[in-house]
Here is the input.
Amino acid sequence: MKKLFLIGIFAFTMINFVDAQEIGIRFGGTNGAGGAAIDGVFESSIGRIHADLGFYDGEIGADALLDFINKPIGGEDFSWYLGAGPTTYIGDDFWLGVCGEIGLEYKFNTVPIVIGADWRPTFWIVETTDFGANSFGLNVRYRFGK
Here is the structure.
């Protein structure tokens, strides 16, 4: 319960320092677990942050990835991104690691919806040392202010 409380404080603090650009849901794997996650893209002073908070069989996973590459492909609507950042998985065990991501996304002009797909390989450091390459997901987000 203490870990859940700390994640809540972290999330509330982050909301005060960034402006929401897109918020939605991620289907598929996050941290190697299947299920769904709250998915958000935020612009901050350090760049684009792609964050997820997932719930899997009573356990929680969270990613906060800095996308240091976010480039359009043949126009503004279709783009690819590449990033990395910390990840955690809290349940019976506590796992902490580093996650990377590479993905594609499409921003619709007629409706404020963004659809994306990405792959997130993860290197776990705490609780166990392991590498997982089985996190694929589909993101559907609502785009604010566009």
About this structure: The first strand starts at residue 19 and ends at 28. The two ends are 38 Å apart (CA to CA). The CA atoms of residues 82 and 102 lie 5 Å apart.
